[in-house]
Recover the amino acids of this structure.
């Protein structure tokens, strides 16, 4: 029997393994566990999101400056066990990519660069542990888990590996398949029934990468980061080049004009993601002072400690005050009450007309041009852009405060919805990627004319997308919408089976699994099972789950410390 089975050896599973052995190296009166590492991907450490074989078109949306937070792994020394330290991401790219951080312009690496770092980091700990007989790496997909007298019995897809048993199970799975919407099912059925029509539900599969090379008229559902990746994947078939237009910042796309490629992104509101500031020089204008951060944390802790009297407006108020303080640095001639109410209404997605917003009635390319000028610090910041960037700056404070808090599930759900709403700004792409979208729009390849909630009609050649008098035709449809974690919508045999046997309890109807502060799964009666879940599928119990830095957060060490206390102390 294994002491522990870790299901999912992507970034979060890797860090769980690291934290466990760092803890064991610090506490000598402990037993070394025997561990099963279960990973369905060919590579360890990367998960599917950071696969090293993915195209260069897929870019990370976290700057090198922020990735300073992906720190090194310390040396692990314990009896015959010696595992060397592994460098931080920034030290690694400095040594292997000769990269230096630039104060004025942030760098955003291809996702496969991060993948190589994670894969090397994983190999550097897993391979020594395998040689010592401490871990067994199982390259198969876990599809079933049942608890028999609190012992986890784990089975695998197509019997690719014999069933195993473990004293404790830790799930560190990342993005899992979701149940398809009715619309997506209809898109897929239409493509299945008709030759020459294509539907791509997951834009990041090897099959999808092959298809992009042959597509010529593509509708893209969603206006977020995945849309930008899909655009770049599609234009790889073109021998083209982005070049600076005059003194910049805008670009031109030079290519063979005989190429017939048309891309039609759309979403329910037609609003694109907003670029992050160019670099530190611009971004530091949205900094929040340490005294303001400390006051914010104190106020939020007070509100959460008395959460039975708290409404979402109460939670937002101290955050709104901080945002207003920052905005007033740029504009001190606006009435304070107006700013506060505008920020609150905007965060709660209540439409309020104001000249302080970037005008969403602008044509999409013009809207993005104004956004890029703000990202360069070349025009005044609008209130909405300020809200989004300050919110991003505050996330390191907000993540721990709203993780395993005393807030009711309903208030926590409302707050997470606010956070999701800000992601169009706070999780925005690098400004370079947006400038490239504008260039592709200017040359006619990228067409935003039906972006705002078009009517979609099937035809023999694919789909017609209509918006008022404008109609565009596409023979391919790509889904670029990534669903937020919702336990009830996950379409994964392992999770579904555990939910159906009542091992997993949703934190809230629209969120992930209920866990305690150490990642232990909680039942409906709040008792713990010999199961833990870390990451996005526990969203609600934890806040802030989608960023690579959160895979290396203190929450993982909290799990490791408690696991050692509960199971490995002599």
């Amino acid at each position: 029997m294994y002491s522990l089975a870790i299901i999912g050896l992507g970034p979060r599973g890797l860090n769980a393994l690291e934290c466990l052995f760092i803890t064991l190296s610090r506490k000598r009166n402990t037993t070394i566990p025997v561990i099963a590492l279960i990973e369905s991907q060919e590579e360890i450490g990367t998960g599917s999101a950071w696969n090293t074989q993915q195209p260069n078109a897929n870019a990370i949306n976290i700057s090198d400056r922020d990735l300073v937070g992906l720190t090194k792994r310390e040396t692990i020394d314990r009896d015959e066990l010696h595992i060397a330290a592994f460098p931080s991401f920034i030290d690694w790219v400095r040594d292997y990519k000769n990269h230096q951080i630039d104060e004025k312009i942030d760098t955003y690496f291809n996702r496969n660069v991060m993948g190589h770092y994670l894969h090397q980091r994983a190999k550097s700990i897993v391979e020594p542990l395998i040689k010592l007989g401490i871990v067994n790496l199982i390259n198969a997909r876990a599809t079933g888990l049942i608890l028999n007298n609190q012992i986890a019995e784990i089975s695998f897809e197509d019997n690719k590996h014999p069933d195993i048993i473990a004293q404790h199970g830790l799930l560190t799975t990342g993005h899992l398949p979701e149940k398809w919407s009715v619309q997506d099912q209809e898109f897929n059925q239409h493509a299945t029934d008709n030759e020459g029509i294509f539907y791509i539900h997951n834009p990041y599969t090897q099959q999808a990468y092959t298809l992009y090379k042959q597509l010529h008229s593509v509708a893209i559902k969603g206006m977020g980061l995945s849309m930008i990746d899909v655009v770049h994947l599609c234009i790889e078939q073109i021998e083209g080049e982005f070049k600076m237009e005059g003194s910049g910042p805008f670009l031109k796309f030079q290519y063979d004009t005989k190429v017939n490629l048309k891309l039609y992104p759309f979403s329910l509101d037609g609003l694109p993601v907003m670029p992050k500031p160019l670099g530190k020089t611009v971004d530091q204008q949205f900094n929040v002072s340490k005294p303001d951060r400390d006051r914010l944390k104190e106020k939020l802790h007070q509100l959460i400690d008395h959460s039975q009297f708290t409404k979402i407006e109460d939670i937002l108020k101290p955050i709104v005050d901080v945002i207003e303080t920052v905005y007033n640095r740029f504009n001190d001639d606006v009435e304070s009450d107006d700013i506060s109410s505008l920020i609150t209404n905007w965060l709660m997605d209540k439409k309020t007309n104001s000249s302080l917003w970037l005008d969403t009635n602008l044509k999409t390319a013009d809207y993005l041009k104004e956004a890029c000028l703000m990202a360069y610090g070349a025009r005044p910041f609008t209130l909405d852009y300020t809200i989004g960037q300050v919110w991003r700056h505050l996330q390191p404070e907000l993540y721990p405060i709203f993780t395993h808090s005393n807030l009711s599930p309903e208030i926590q759900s409302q707050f997470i919805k606010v956070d999701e709403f800000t992601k169009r700004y706070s999780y925005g792409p690098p400004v370079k990627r947006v400038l490239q979208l504008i260039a592709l729009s200017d040359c006619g390849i990228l067409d935003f004319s039906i972006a705002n909630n078009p009517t979609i009609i099937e035809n023999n050649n694919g789909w017609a997308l209509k918006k008022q008098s404008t109609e565009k035709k596409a023979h391919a449809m790509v889904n670029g919408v990534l669903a937020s974690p919702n336990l009830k919508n996950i379409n994964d045999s392992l999770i579904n089976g555990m939910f159906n046997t009542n091992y997993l309890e949703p934190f809230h109807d629209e969120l992930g699994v209920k866990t305690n502060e150490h990642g232990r799964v909680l039942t409906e009666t709040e008792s713990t099972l010999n199961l833990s879940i870390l990451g996005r599928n526990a969203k609600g119990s934890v806040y802030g789950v989608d960023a690579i830095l959160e895979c290396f957060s203190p929450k993982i060490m909290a799990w490791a410390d408690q696991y050692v206390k509960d199971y490995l102390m002599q």
